Amino acid sequence: MPHKRNPIGSENMTGMARVVRGYMMTAYENVSLWHERDISHSSAERIILPDATIAVNYMLNRFSNIVKNLTVFPENMKRNIDCTYGVIFSQRVLLSLIDQGMSREQAYDIVQPNAMKAWETATPFRQLIEQEEQITNLLSNEQLDDCFDYTYHLKNVDQIFKKSV
Amino acid sequence: MIERYTREEMGEIWTSENRFNAWLEVEILACEAWSELGVIPKEDVKKLRENASFNIDRIFEIEQETRHDVVAFTRAVSESLGDEKKWVHYGLTSTDVVDTALSYLLKQANVLIRRDIVNFIKILKEKAIEHKNTVMMGRTHGVHAEPTTFGLKMALWYEEMKRNLERFDAAAKVIETGKMSGAVGTYANIDPYVEEYVCEKLGLQAAPVSTQTLQRDRHAQYMSTLALVATRLKNSQRKSVDCKKQKPVKSKNFLQKVKKALQQCRINVIQSVQRI
């Protein structure tokens, strides 16, 4: 099919990894030999040791190449965040309402039905809650902007990177 | 392994020629050790080192009769020698040669695999830094949860491959071990010095205690580590496939509605590039 670009390189890895795990099971079967030796392990090892090292060498090279040349579409990834109508920000709206003095139960009872409605009617979640007076009375437009700001979730990324990369 | 998946450099390690070369090296080193112990005359060892060789076809030909590959090998090697041939395989049991040489071959393979893991880690690190702030959807149970970044996913993977490198180094140390302890591991017909000498020359550890063989927990640990490395190469592609799949689902319940909504986005997040 001309419109498709299939991840066959990655799927090739999936199959080969199955083979290597199978070889691992054979290696475990080889651990128990009789007394000071029997030769049951020998035939198996003639296959599994060369094959596993050859497979892993091949996989690491092929997959390193795939990752190195990965085409990433940041704009599509960002757009993907919005494709669930902003319901992923419902938790922050809920917490902000609690911060402004609403009870958890009351906040949940307003936020949750609107989140469901957003799903079911394919309507932006923000548009729905802006029609809820109980919410707009407590949260200003700026506060709502803050609730729907994805960068809030990324504020500790630097710190995580400092521990690793 | 079929040719399709065999890279030349690794394939060369597992050829019959390279395997017999490893056997020959173990045999000659053993003679050198016996010579240092005063058992084999120096001039004989010199001749063995200079002249011992084999013809692969001849080994296979002899094996047709002997039905034993090590016997066929030592006989073929003996055909390349004069009277000093009497010392070939002196005091050894077949597995002293086969197991020690196998570890020596794995040591050669490990140089390549280690290099490949290190290279992969380097690529993951570069990708993590490049996409540190590339925001994307984080998912739990396959469904949108909270935003994260693609760089974080790469950093997670980078850390895991660093752990795999540590595991690999540990497993390589365990497998890069030789044994020359005789038929049941008691050194009845061989001086323990031979094992010490041969292993040291090959860059292997000598097994403190062995039977006729090296114990196979060593090989099992090694294979587990390779399987874990391979598994992670496999698992990571789930992300790229999951993020782009667009399978239509009939909406039956809420979760399915969620999935359907996601699938309707029809957005290819990551393109896993085809490389043949």
TrEMBL record, chain A:
<dbReference type="GO" id="GO:0004018">
    <property type="term" value="F:N6-(1,2-dicarboxyethyl)AMP AMP-lyase (fumarate-forming) activity"/>
</dbReference>
<dbReference type="GO" id="GO:0070626">
    <property type="term" value="F:(S)-2-(5-amino-1-(5-phospho-D-ribosyl)imidazole-4-carboxamido) succinate lyase (fumarate-forming) activity"/>
</dbReference>
<feature type="domain" description="Adenylosuccinate lyase C-terminal">
    <location>
        <begin position="85"/>
        <end position="165"/>
    </location>
</feature>
<dbReference type="GO" id="GO:0005829">
    <property type="term" value="C:cytosol"/>
</dbReference>
<dbReference type="InterPro" id="IPR008948">
    <property type="entry name" value="L-Aspartase-like"/>
</dbReference>
<dbReference type="InterPro" id="IPR019468">
    <property type="entry name" value="AdenyloSucc_lyase_C"/>
</dbReference>
<dbReference type="Pfam" id="PF10397">
    <property type="entry name" value="ADSL_C"/>
</dbReference>
<keyword id="KW-0456">Lyase</keyword>
<protein>
    <submittedName>
        <fullName>Adenylosuccinate lyase</fullName>
    </submittedName>
</protein>
<dbReference type="GO" id="GO:0044208">
    <property type="term" value="P:'de novo' AMP biosynthetic process"/>
</dbReference>
UniProtKB/TrEMBL annotation, chain B:
<dbReference type="GO" id="GO:0044208">
    <property type="term" value="P:'de novo' AMP biosynthetic process"/>
</dbReference>
<dbReference type="InterPro" id="IPR000362">
    <property type="entry name" value="Fumarate_lyase_fam"/>
</dbReference>
<dbReference type="InterPro" id="IPR024083">
    <property type="entry name" value="Fumarase/histidase_N"/>
</dbReference>
<dbReference type="InterPro" id="IPR008948">
    <property type="entry name" value="L-Aspartase-like"/>
</dbReference>
<feature type="domain" description="Fumarate lyase N-terminal">
    <location>
        <begin position="7"/>
        <end position="234"/>
    </location>
</feature>
<dbReference type="InterPro" id="IPR022761">
    <property type="entry name" value="Fumarate_lyase_N"/>
</dbReference>
<dbReference type="GO" id="GO:0005829">
    <property type="term" value="C:cytosol"/>
</dbReference>
<dbReference type="GO" id="GO:0070626">
    <property type="term" value="F:(S)-2-(5-amino-1-(5-phospho-D-ribosyl)imidazole-4-carboxamido) succinate lyase (fumarate-forming) activity"/>
</dbReference>
<dbReference type="GO" id="GO:0004018">
    <property type="term" value="F:N6-(1,2-dicarboxyethyl)AMP AMP-lyase (fumarate-forming) activity"/>
</dbReference>
<keyword id="KW-0456">Lyase</keyword>
<dbReference type="Pfam" id="PF00206">
    <property type="entry name" value="Lyase_1"/>
</dbReference>
<protein>
    <submittedName>
        <fullName>Adenylosuccinate lyase</fullName>
    </submittedName>
</protein>
